[in-house]
Specification:
By secondary structure, this protein is an alpha+beta fold. The chain folds into two domains: 134 residues, Immunoglobulin-like (Sandwich), CATH 2.60.40; 118 residues, no CATH class. Helix content is 16%, strand content 52%. It contains four helices and 13 strands. Strands 2-8-7-4-5 form a five-stranded mixed β-sheet, with no helix packed on it. Strands 9-10-11-12-13 form a five-stranded antiparallel β-sheet, with helices on one face. A hairpin with an 8-residue loop joins β10 and β11. The longest helix has 12 residues. The radius of gyration is 24 Å and the shape is elongated. It holds the Pfam family Spo0M. It comes from Anoxybacillus thermarum. This is Stage 0 sporulation protein M.
């Protein structure tokens, strides 16, 4: 009977189970993710090589003129290694780590989750997934507030595969597309796209694309060639928050 149970466990029947319990499932960038991983033994004793947590997110990739949803690992942590889980035994492994600053916020179709996996010798590896709601930190919120004050509305936010010269540590970036609905830029711009590259909780680099509205045949020709788009990089710091609206307005105005 013992041998038969081992055979079943090797294909995942009666094997150890894993369940991750998060203390909070809604977090802002940079906050601590805390929780506990519960491992429950199955019908037989099993050797566990590792317990690992992977922070994952979805993004889109263009393949043959269609969008395909892909998955990326933002960061991976090993929280335990090399132990034996006895039949019917329960073990708990607490964890705590910072939510990486380059984690996309969960807006639109973007999904972020914590994948828990066990590496078990000669057996199917059990796993668990827990979805997280990711909120912007203070620096991002200030940029969103300024754009709203300048008459822009967030039209779309999407994680998409990025060219190598744009990306940093991940294969994708999260683009925020703003359209002017009031104020001085209405009628002058089609949209402004912003990508955030956080350096620290207090400092962030912005890649801003200003898409000017076409005027006349020359403007339409430029729009067709994407010559009406301007890219600019700017670094903002927490100590400049008081003047952020003035500075961003001047920057957008310069390229409008």
């Amino acid at each position: 009977m013992g041998l038969f149970n081992k055979v079943l466990a090797s294909i995942g029947i009666g094997s150890a189970k894993v369940d991750t319990k998060l203390h909070e499932s809604q977090l802002s960038l940079g906050e601590q993710i805390t929780g506990v991983v519960e491992v429950t033994g199955g019908n037989v004793d099993q050797d566990i090589d590792d317990i690992y947590l992977s922070l994952c997110a979805t993004y889109t990739k263009e393949v043959d003129d269609r969008k395909v949803t892909k998955q990326a690992i933002i960061e991976k942590w090993k929280i335990a290694q090399s132990f034996v889980i006895r039949a019917g035994e329960k073990k708990e492994f607490p964890f705590s780590f910072s939510l990486p600053l380059d984690t996309p916020i969960t807006v639109g179709k973007t999904r972020v989750w914590l994948h828990t996996g066990l590496d078990i010798k000669n057996a199917v590896d059990p796993s668990d997934e827990d979805y997280i709601r990711v909120q912007p930190n203070r620096m991002m919120n200030e940029v969103f507030r300024v754009m709203e004050n300048l008459g822009f509305r967030l039209k779309e936010a999407e994680c998409k595969e990025a060219a190598h010269y744009v990306r940093k540590n991940l294969p994708f970036v999260q683009e925020f597309e703003f359209v002017p609905t009031s104020g001085e830029f209405r009628g002058k711009l089609d949209e402004v796209e912003i990508i955030f590259f956080p350096h620290t909780p207090q400092e962030c680099e912005l890649l801003i694309q200003v898409d000017r509205r076409a005027h006349g045949l020359a403007g339409l020709f430029a729009e067709a060639l994407d010559l009406d788009e301007t890219f600019v990089r700017v670094t903002i710091h927490e100590q400049h928050i008081q003047t952020l609206q003035t500075e961003l307005a001047a920057l957008i105005r310069r390229y409008a």
